[in-house]
Amino acid sequence: MSVILETQSLRREFGALVAVDDVSVKIEEGSLHSIIGPNGAGKTTFFNLVSGTLKPTAGRVFYKGEDITDLPVHRTIHEGIGRSFQITNIFPNLTVFENIRLASQALGSDSYRLFRSHLKFTEHLERTNEVLEEVGLTSRAPTLARTLPHGDQRKLELGMILAPDPDVLMLDEPTAGMAAEQVPELMALVQSIQEAGNKTVVLVEHNMNVVMSVSDRITVMHQGALLAEGTPAEISADETVQTAYLGALYNEEPGRDGGKT
Amino acid sequence: MTAPTMTDRTGLTGWLQRRRGVLITAALLVAFPFIISIVVDGQGLAAVWSNEQGNARFLQGLAIEVFILALYALSYDLILGVTGLLSFGHAMFFAVGAYVVLIAALLQAFLFAIVLPRVKGITFALVTLGFASVFWIVIQSSDLQEWAGAEIGLQGVEAPVWFLDTTNHRFAFYLVSLAILLGVFVLYQRIIDAPAGKVFASIRENEDRSLMLGYNTFWFKLMVLVVASITAALAGAMHTMHQPIVTPNVASLAFTVTALLIILIGGVGTLTGALVGAAVYRLLQFYLDRWYGAASELLIGLAYVLLVLYLPYGIVGTWRARSLRIKEGRDRLLQMVTGASKETSSPEE
Ligand SMILES: Nc1ncnc2c1ncn2[C@@H]1O[C@H](COP(=O)(O)OP(=O)(O)OP(=O)(O)O)[C@@H](O)[C@H]1O
Ligand SMILES: [Mg+2]
User: Fold this and answer.
1) Between A214 and B253, the higher pLDDT residue
2) How confident is the model over B128-156, as a mean pLDDT?
3) Which of A133, A125, A167, A187 shows the shortest CA–CA distance to A27?
4) Which among B208, B220, B119, B200 has a CA at the least distance from the CA of A51?
5) Cα(B106)–Cα(B233) distance, integer angstroms
6) Pocket of ligand 1, candidates A11, A17, A208, A226: which has the most ligand atoms within 8 Å of its Cβ, to mutate?
7) How far apart are CA B60 and CA B51, in angstroms?
8) Does residue A250's CB lie within 6 angstroms of at least one atom of ligand 1?
9) A128 and A30 within one domain
10) For residue B348, which residues of chain A lie inside 8 Å, CB to CB?
11) Domain count of chain A?
């Protein structure tokens, strides 16, 4: 197995706060790699740095051996890295169909066409229908995205990064705020996508049961820094992790995400 | 819209069907001077072409003003309504056209377009306001008096060809401006239905997400600004042909607000609203002034307040929302009756 995504001493400061503190991670191609840590550990900031939404204070990001640290944010997906958001980030007044269709259309040069109806570009329409089917939103296609229930908005969020068929999917709490009974369904979908397409998934998730059961590897962050890394078994056996994070999370935050039992 | 609807007709019949709104409007407006000439003026059909004095000629003049305003407001709707960019500098593009410096208009469009697509939200609004102020000062300056006429503006600009001569060939100019307006309107409708137009809408909805999807929004905003500023300049040039006296007022902030007002009346982002809004705006202004004189300003203000209160999405926007609701209700009823689940069509235009 080769490393597909790597960060070297990645660092980001907000004033005096070090949100990401010299984080070096290697992500194996085709693996499901989870990043966990308590609130404010720097997971989302780490995602922002890798996807180009934020520029690091120091450190580099490599993708397939290439330095992508300075890539503008709109290029990331063209390289093959798709990223979803913890806080649903969609086009609220467009239909569900159009949200996905825009994501399907983005990679080629078709989007610069000014005078031909978008309905003539059938491959985008077909791709949209495929993705809608995959995330189970086919019947909601004509609905305005903002009128969807929260759980369906999370599915839409996922659909929007599936549409361009990236090699790496970076999912920031894809089940955040979802009803407990919907969580296994969505995670099963993520797993099947990863296995079927031999894709790499980087997952941020608070639900420990989910993380332990789906991950190949787990990275633990704490106050911006790397705390531990290993297989699910190693992480649950790790004492520092237990005291610093897992115990605290289990004891202090019962029912976060509504997904814990 | 779920499945690619390939049932829509191609060829001439399909085109006629899809464009029937525009075609009917065009036919009615071409017939309009003749109808007025016969019914109101008691003159013949030929009077229209031979440019006789009368209501027909006068109303054509008023209609041309509406067409020019509509063209101008249409271009503003592409920027604000479709793409969601709040610009305070739009009058400047019109003014550049009005001062018949089309080459400069193109240069300016590109120049500003290089700066403007780089800024977002309120910064965009402020930068456009800054540019507009500078432009306003420049055209009024006495150093440029020879070309721009300072406070007085331009006077006695001559029509380069007969069909742009509003004094001696009004019907021809009427047809030309109508054709330009409807042509640009159809073009704009195509644009917002094309892949690029869909990206414009995504910028309005959520530019950050649009970037994350892989769109270099800079180029799309550039496209919008170039298309809209050229359109506004075209409207400005037509204005100069129609009113051979050009005052610096066409470059003022108030004239940008006019565009905003027109699309608010008509319905932001609907395109059709720009045309309807321009007609309502200019006709209200003209007739209230004629009938009530000094009191008209107050009445106009009142009319706008009523419009905003009762038609929050503008005339066209509210109309569409209503007919959508009626359609949804009908579909639901049908579903209940037949038990079949027939999908409602997409509310997105
Ligand atoms: N744009 C910003 N400006 C200033 N501080 C920020 C910014 N973004 C994040 N932070 C701070 O950086 C720290 C890390 O935040 P981050 O969102 O990355 O944590 P997280 O691990 O994703 O937490 P959660 O589990 O709550 O999503 C927090 O203290 C946060 O307040
Ligand atoms: Mg987070």
Assistant:
1) A214
2) 59
3) A167
4) B208
5) 9
6) A17
7) 11
8) no
9) no
10) 94-95, 98, 144
11) 2
Residue B349: pLDDT over 50? no
Closest atom, ligand 1, to C-alpha of A86? 27
Q: Sheet harboring A3-14: ordered strands across?
A: A17-28, A3-14, A58-63, A66-67
Whether B18 contacts chain A with CB within 8 A:
no
Ion ligand 2: protein residues whose beta carbon lies under 5 Å:
A 43-44, 86
Which tens digit of pLDDT belongs to each residue from A89-133?
999 999 999 999 999 999 988 999 989 999 999 999 999 999 999
Q: Please judge whether B2 and A141 are an interchain contact, meaning their C-beta atoms are less than 8 angstroms apart.
A: yes
Q: Mutate which of A75, A112, A124, A128 to disrupt the B interface (most B C-beta within 10 Å)?
A: A112
- Ligand 2 centre to CA of A36 (Å) is 10
ipTM (interface pTM): 0.88
CATH (domain of A24): 3.40.50.300
Q: What is the structure's pLDDT at B142?
A: 55
Distance A230 CA to ligand 2 centre (A): 21
C-alpha A112: how far from chain center? 28
Best CA proximity match to B215, nearest among A118, A124, A116, A102: A102
C-alpha–C-alpha distance, residues B183 and B238, integer Å: 15
Q: Cα–Cα distance between B40 and B56 in angstroms, integer?
A: 8
Residues A1 and A61 in one domain: yes
Residue B338 has pLDDT above 90, yes or no: no
The answer for A 35-94 residues in CB contact with B (under 8 A) is 51, 53, 72-78, 83, 89-94
Choosing from A165, A198, A224, the residue where a domain stops is A165
- Name the average pLDDT for chain B: 79
Mean pLDDT along residues B144-157: 53
Last residue of a domain, one of A138, A165, A192: A165
pLDDT in tens, B236-288: 888 877 876 666 676 677 788 888 999 999 999 999 999 999 999 999 988 88
Residue B213's contacts (CB-CB under 8 Å, 6 or more residues apart) are A74, A77, A102, A103, A106, A160, A164, B202
CA of B294 to the centre of ligand 1 (A): 60
The domain defined by B6-310 carries CATH number 1.10.3470:
yes
Q: What is the 3-state secondary structure (H, E, C) of chain B?
A: CCCCCCCCCCHHHHHHHHCHHHHHHHHHHHHHHHHHHHHCCCCCCHHHHCCCCCHHHHHHHHHHHHHHHHHHHHHHHHHHHHCCCCCCCHHHHHHHHHCCCHHHHHHHHHHHHHHHHHCCHHHHHHHHHHHHHHHHHHHHCHHHHHHHCCCCCECCCCCCCHHHCCCCCHHHHHHHHHHHHHHHHHHHHHHHHCHHHHHHHHHHHHHHHHHHCCCCHHHHHHHHHHHHHHHHHHHHHHHHHHCCCECHHHHCHHHHHHHHHHHHHHCCCCCHHHHHHHHHHHHHHHHHHHHHHHHHHHHHHHHHHHHHHHCCCHHHHHHHHHHHHHHHHHHHHHHHHHCCCCCCCCCCC
Q: How far apart are CA A184 and CA A161, in angstroms?
A: 19
The per-residue pLDDT for B90 is: 82
What is the structure's pLDDT at A257?
43
What was the pLDDT predicted at B5?
Answer: 46
Same domain, A171 and A223: yes
